[in-house]
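Quick one: co-fold with F0G.
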Amino acid sequence: LAEDQSGVWRFRNLLPIVQDKNITTLREGNTPLYDLPRCAKALGLHWLLAKHQGMNPTGSFKDTGMTAALSVAVERGFEWVACASTGNTSAAMAAYAARAGLRSIVFIPEGKIAWGKLSQSMDYGALTVQLKTDFDGCVRLVNELVKAHPIYLLNSVNPYRLEGQKTPAFEMVEQMDWQVPEHVIVPGGNLANSAALAKGFAEMKLLGLIPRVPKISIIQAQGANPLYLSMQANGGRELIPVVAETRASAIRIGHPASFGKAVRALATHGGWCEEVSEQEIALAKAQIGAEGVGCEPASAVTLAGLKKLVAQGKVGPEERVVLILTGHTLKDSDYTIHYHKGDLLTAEEKAAISPADAELNSLL
Ligand code: F0G
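Sure, here it is.
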């Protein structure tokens, strides 16, 4: 059965119940857990792992959530689904909707998403609407749309998305021979993924499958850092929205929908929220590429954030750290080409590269 080959549906006892005939799958999940030996060495860690969610069918972690939520849309008899997106959710939604024979409509901020992602939603046949606004503006519009029409909303406020996105936590522990890592590091944008993984670990503990949960840390780009700002200013009691700007376009989000859930994930699992600069993201991405693994810019914030946590003494050399790489390197090849051509970063950003990073860079 197709669903038995899915890394999400093989956990279906722990997922929302849909009838098997409604399961819409592209054989997502079952993603590799790579080691990053050179990054580990550079950081003075004994080992460092990366769960590569970019190795999913449409090239991002969104597929694990989309298979669950789209199957629910089918079960409920919807003919249309919709989302606002910085590119990966829309690619995943378009693919799964096409698979199920549903129509999809995506709202994306014009000129602010990577071309590869835009091309995916067109290829999979979504009605693709570029709007002269940012991601947060697209969210407001899609909310209006689904209020007025019988269209199923597939943004990550949809709870079934999180059910699918919790399964990499199960896989990770399975791949580590049922050892629990000390620390999992996740990029933070709309802030659903961190909450989903936290739920996955919490459920495993509740079921007695693991004795404890890992710390979960969330890393944001400095120019799109509402969680970081809020944690600093008020311990996460109140969201401080920002006008977001970063080249890591997947996480260019100023008003995250799952803010409260992410704050709870930090509280229940321990861990920290950090912010990283544009040059730190670019260098971390190149380092992950140089391991033969690669990822998109938003995923590289995890390694950049880990460097900060190590420097602050929050991660020790013995700890088993897993970075969640959320998207494939081919998602945003423009970024990579400009970086290696040398014209991605401004002179100011280049001047702000730390001596340690500069030395690493010369070794790449
Ligand atoms: N990494 C990538 C590659 C993403 O596409 C996203 C979010 C994130 C990290 C952040 O995850 O939102 O759960 O905190 N992308 C969404 C989209 C917003 O529309 O594709 P989050």
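If it helps, The longest strand covers residues 103-109.
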